[in-house]
Every structure is written in C-alpha cells, then in structure tokens.
Amino acid sequence: MQILRYKQEIIMRTFFKTVIVFILTWEARRVLKTWRPFIVLVSGSVGKTTTKDAVYHVLKDSIATRKSEKSFNSEIGVPLTILGLENAWSSPLAWLKNIWLGFRVPRAQSYPKLLVLEVGSDHPGDIARLMKWLTPDIAVVTCLPQVPVHVENFESPESIRREDALVTQALREGGVYIANADDEHAYLLTDETDKRKLRSLTYGFGRRAKLQGLSPKVRYAKNEGVDAPVGMQFDVTWEDETFPVYLNGVLGVQSCTAALAALAVGIARGLSFFRMTEALFHLETPPGRMRVIEGKNGSTIIDDTYNSSPIALSAALAALRDITGKRRIAMLGDMLELGTYSEEEHWKAGRLAGAFVDELVTVGKRARWIAEAAKSSGLPQGCIHEFATSDEAGEFMLSILERGDVILAKGSQGGGENIIRMERAVKVLMAHPEEARSKLVRQEDEWTQR
C-alpha cells in the first residue's frame, strides 16, 4: 500500500511540474515577444555560473541587465529568470502566485534591456527544449570536455557535447559566438558558425585565442603573519594592447578563463576595456566556485564545493598545486554521474593529488579510488584519511589544522545514500561560520533541512 501511495505521489509531482513548466514557458515566451531583450546565453559542461556572473558584472553598468540567479539553468530556472521570479520549491501556493505574477510581466512599465541566461543539460533534451523558443544574440560555450559532468545520463560524451553546443545553432542572424579557444570541442564549433557567416570571437590562454590571457598567477596578502592567497591576476591582449586584470576572493586559471569570456562578451558589445577590468576587480564569484574563505587557526579554504567532475577537479587540484602554503591539503568527495568512467577518473584525480598534497581527506565510496591512487603515487598512508560523511571529514580536519594551511574542498552534491555535500565540512572549518549562509552553497532552508 505504501509503495502504491509513493508511486501516486511521484506521478502527481511529475504532472504538477509538467504543468508549471508549460505555463511558465508560455509566459516567458510572451515576455520575450513583448520586450525583445538582447540575450546572452552561457552553456558548457563546467564554468557556466562563474562565467555568467562575470558577464553580468561586465555589462550591468552599461545597460539594464538581469542574470540567472545561482544555477537557474533548467526548463524551470530559465523561465523564472526571464519572468523575474523566485523558486517556489515545493509550495503549490507559491507556484500559483508565480504564475499570476508571470502573467502580469508583459504589462509592466519597464523590463531589462539585456538578459544573461545560463542553460545546462542534466539529461538528453534539456537544452534542445529551451532552444525551441530561445534565440540568443550572443552564445558563450565554456568547456566541452572528454568526460563531461552528468555523462552517466547520456549515451556517450559526444551526445552531451552536442546538447551543450545547441546554443550556437540557435544564434540569430548577425549573432556572435564566444568560444573558449583552449577547449578543442568548443573551438571547433567556430567552423559551423563561420559557415553561417556569424561572427565568432575566441578567448583563452593559448596562442590561437583572439582575446588572449597571459601569465595568470596567485596574489597573496598577510593573514595572521602568514602569506595567504587572496585572488588572481593576469594580463590580457587585444588588438596589440595589453591590459592587467585583477580578481579578488577567487583562485585558479579557470576563474581567469571565466573573466576572459566576460571580456569577450563586452568587446562584442563595444565596451571599453578600462570599465570592464574595473568591473571584474569588484566581481564576487558565486558560492562554491573556487572562492577563498578564511579558515580557523589562520588557514585558508578554497571552497569549490558546488559540484565535481573530472575536468573541474583537475583544474582545482592544479590551482592548489600552484599555491604557496605551509601544507596543501585536498579534501575531496565522490564525483557522481560518471557511469563507466567513474573508477578511471577517480584514479586519475588520486594520482594527481598524490603527487603533491601534504594531506588527503576523502569522503564517499567512490573517493576511495582517489585514496588508493594517491597511495600508489607515493603519498604515505598516514597522510590519507577516509570518511563516510563530510561532517566527519570536517571535524577531523579541524583537529589537525595548522596556521598557513591551504585546504581545497570539492565534491559532488549527491543525495540519499550518495550524499556528499562538502560545504558541510567547509562550515566546520570556517573562521566565521556565522557567515555560512551568505558564503556557502546550498544554505537555503530547503537544502539545510535535507
């Protein structure tokens, strides 16, 4: 009887969601037809949210702009952004209120002139459905790696890359494709846009990028008498001129790459470099994406806990490797939804971490492969610590924390038996845990009560 009730509840929830998506999509299409805003779409396997926020910061002072909040990149999140509405979570009354408010948007006295929208693909067809009614003026593709996140839900890595690339096919006539020249698959899409006689602008740190970044490096400041990482700096060249760029509170070349994408969008919009670099100096990246957080005992936390995938973890570990600290510590949870690639990719991460970290802390069943690989790479057994939950990992880390330590925290979100949620470990280590709600990912009541 309980199983039957559970199935009925699932059917009703699915039906309710389908109806909500249909109505919100209809309302969003109506709004776009009425107000005709300029649309920037950001797609890719990783780096979408940081890139989207960077693009917004570069554009917001030049034109009335709205961006997707957090990671609103789904068939519900995108219409909510267009309508300027919040997530109603599991409240039917709140969703009914949203529908009513959404119906009234076309009659509003004003509306943003430009939208920066993030689109993502967790399952086949996610982006295809959105592209049936979204026509971007600018499309940004961040990264299409060999083993993308959520690959377990697709037939192959290539099928998810095709899904993420659909934003370029949806570009309107006269549109611009902003391509990551450091990513082979994203770069090759310029061939298709060239055939359609669309403009393309490439960015990256490699030589084939039209907008080229140079010499990314970590910036340091004193924290309790110890040099602690506080941000990044790099140079960027465009049309034979070189400009310095400074990012605060975030680490990693991947963060610099997101800034380059934002600059490329600004160039396509005709903005001045001085104003764009000034905007990036004040950029606050979203929680859980390579953010610098002050830790207890004079330590520094690199909070990259939003999610984890092979390419993102590799980039995060590379950032940790490049940092000067008393000890470099990796606190890593499972990477989920990798299917048949799971063991191999965890082993790759473990070998990379084992080659340089001073301590390795793992969380979850799959992360055991990380621990095994690190040991095989020469990391002593006494420096490897395995836990079932992020809370346990956080409490252990707190017991061994020393001044000057730099700790990278990263893992998939998970749920049920596979819950990882590495932000819980970060909260234990924060020098100011009372700031967790504003600084950490998934701190809304709907998340913390799970």
UniProtKB/TrEMBL annotation:
One Pfam match: Mur_ligase_M
Mur ligase C-terminal domain boundaries: 288-412
GO molecular function, one term: ATP binding
Superkingdom classification of source: Bacteria
The Mur ligase central domain, residue ranges: 42-263
Record keywords: ATP-binding, Ligase, Nucleotide-binding
Classification via PANTHER family: UDP-N-ACETYLMURAMOYL-TRIPEPTIDE--D-ALANYL-D-ALANINE LIGASE (PTHR43024:SF1)
Name of the protein described by the UniProt record: UDP-N-acetylmuramoyl-tripeptide--D-alanyl-D-alanine ligase
Organism for this UniProt entry: Candidatus Lloydbacteria bacterium RIFCSPHIGHO2_01_FULL_49_22
Lineage: Bacteria, Candidatus Lloydiibacteriota
